[in-house]
Design brief:
This protein has 99 residues and is α/β, with parallel strands linked by helices. It has 3 helices and 6 strands, in the order βαββαβββα. The protein is 31% helix and 22% strand. The radius of gyration is 12 Å and the shape is globular.
Length: 99
């Protein structure tokens, strides 16, 4: 079974590059994006789940984790590519309960 990585802010160039690298290595990718409708390059890939995710919103973070677990069964790694201001977002909220 392939491993699964959740990448926050997968819509930005560094997030896309990270997702592509993990896909090339055989991982499943959960691509978190604030506005997924604007970024469709991963939409039709079976090994990618695109989720709406604003890491400053706890409910969205928890929903994204739940969707990822439902789709792939588990999350093996989280790459926090998102930030807001001078602080880095904590996407690991509730991860131990959902992973």
């Amino acid at each position: 079974m392939a491993k699964t990585v959740l990448i926050t802010d997968a819509a930005c160039e560094s997030g896309k590059m990270t997702a592509r690298r993990y896909l090339d290595d055989g991982w499943n990718v959960v691509a978190g994006m604030r506005r997924p409708a604007l970024h469709q390059e991963f939409n039709h890939m079976e090994q990618v789940l695109v989720v709406a995710l604003d890491v400053t919103n706890r409910e969205m973070a928890e929903a994204a984790l739940w969707q990822a677990k439902s789709y792939f069964g588990k999350i093996d790694a989280v790459i926090n590519n998102a930030d807001y201001g001078d602080a880095v977002a904590d996407i690991t909220i509730g991860l131990s309960q959902t992973a």
